[in-house]
Design a protein that fits this description.
Elements: H1 2-32, E1 63-66, E2 72-75, H2 78-88, E3 94-98, E4 111-113, E5 118-121, E6 132-135, H3 138-150, H4 154-166
């Protein structure tokens, strides 16, 4: 009879120990399970070269691609980025494009997730000749288009750029 009581109490202790170990392991795994790493753009290195043309990059049209391996490669323009993707049938984690509106000042580099940026095809000379430029929001792109479409004079465009710096 006493042996039954001892066996039952030892089983209760074993159950409590098992439950405690299970909870410790479960909560421990919550902290050690790898979470998906957030990918952020990096500043364009001064000596960055285009992956396609192997020439220096003008940051106004720059694109950066984050590979699944963690490597980051740069392109001189959106057209070269698309050329690389098409040629290599490449899938990537994230790509960022430069906001044309903010890119006039190297210190205020503004990278935009390529999936949410607004794009405009212009007659502006880009490194790849596509004329595609990107903006962070629709308002800036529409304002730019209205101004450029109103007059296609280069000096008026320069005036537009000067006005934007003042704002």
């Amino acid at each position: 009879m006493q042996e039954d009581k001892i066996n039952k109490s030892s089983q209760k202790v074993q159950k409590k120990v098992f439950l405690a170990m299970f909870l410790v392991i479960a909560f421990g795994l919550l902290f050690f399970i790898p979470t998906k790493k957030e990918i952020h753009p990096i500043r364009l290195p001064k000596d960055a070269i285009c992956e396609v043309t192997k020439q220096p990059i003008n940051y106004r049209f720059a694109v950066q691609l984050h590979k699944k391996s963690g490597d980051v490669i740069f392109f001189a323009s959106i057209g070269y980025f698309f050329e690389y993707i098409k040629k290599n049938n490449y899938y990537f984690n994230r790509a960022f494009v430069m906001d044309y509106h903010k890119s006039r000042d190297f210190d205020s580099e503004l990278w935009i997730n390529a999936r949410v940026a607004y794009y405009i095809k212009t007659t502006l000379p880009t490194p790849d000749g596509s004329g595609i430029i990107s903006f962070i929001d629709k308002d800036n792109s529409i304002e730019y288009l209205k101004y450029v479409e109103k007059e296609s004079n280069f000096f008026i465009l320069i005036e537009y750029i000067r006005e934007q710096r003042v704002k």
